[in-house]
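Reopening this ticket.

The earlier resolution said the output was attached, but the attachment link was broken on my side. Pasting everything inline this time so it's all in one place.
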Amino acid sequence: MYCVKTHVTIEDTIKKSRFIGVLTPCLSEPEVLKHLNDCHHQHPNASHIVFAYRIKSVKGIIMKFHDAGEPGGTAGKPVYHHLEGKDLINVLCVVIRYFGGIKLGAGGLTRAYGNTAKKIIEASQIIEYIEYTEVHLELEYKQMQLLEYQLKKLDGVILEQKFSENISLLVKIPDKNLAILAEKFELAD
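Inline output:
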C-alpha cells in the first residue's frame, strides 16, 4: 500500500471544459469532509465537484466515490479506479469541472475524469505506507541516550515524555521495528 506525501493540484482543459484535479492526504472521513467543504467554498461556481477516497481504518479500507450530478459511473468511479489501481490509501482525489459548453458524452466524461485523476497521481510524490504503533516505555535517565540512538535507527519518534524518578515515554515506531525495540527496552502496558 502507498500514500501521497503532500497536497497536489493540476489543471487541464478538455473541449473547453476546465478540469482541476486535487489530491490530498487524509487520515479520516471527517478530514475528507473538511477538504470537500473547502473545495465547495473555493469553487462555488463549478459545474461538478467529483471525488473518490480510500482511507485505512481499524475496520479495513473505507472507500467512496461520487459522480456529483454527472451520469452514473462516468465520473467518481473512474477516479476511484486510479486510486485503487495504484493501491493508494489515506487519500482524497477531487476533480472539479467547469462546463465549457461542449458535451463530452459518457465515454468522453469517463476518459476526462479518469485522465485527470491519472495525471494528478503521476504528479504527486507517492510513498510507501508504513503502519505505526505507539508504545509506553519507563526508563532510567542513563538509558535515554541509548533510546534516542535506537529510535533514530528504527525510524521512531518520541511523542510524550514525563520526568520524575524515571522517564515515562510514549513512542511511535513502525510495526516492523517494534520487536527490535522490545529486545533492548522493556515496553510498558
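Reporter confirms the inline version is readable. The chain has five helices and eleven strands. The mean pLDDT is 93.
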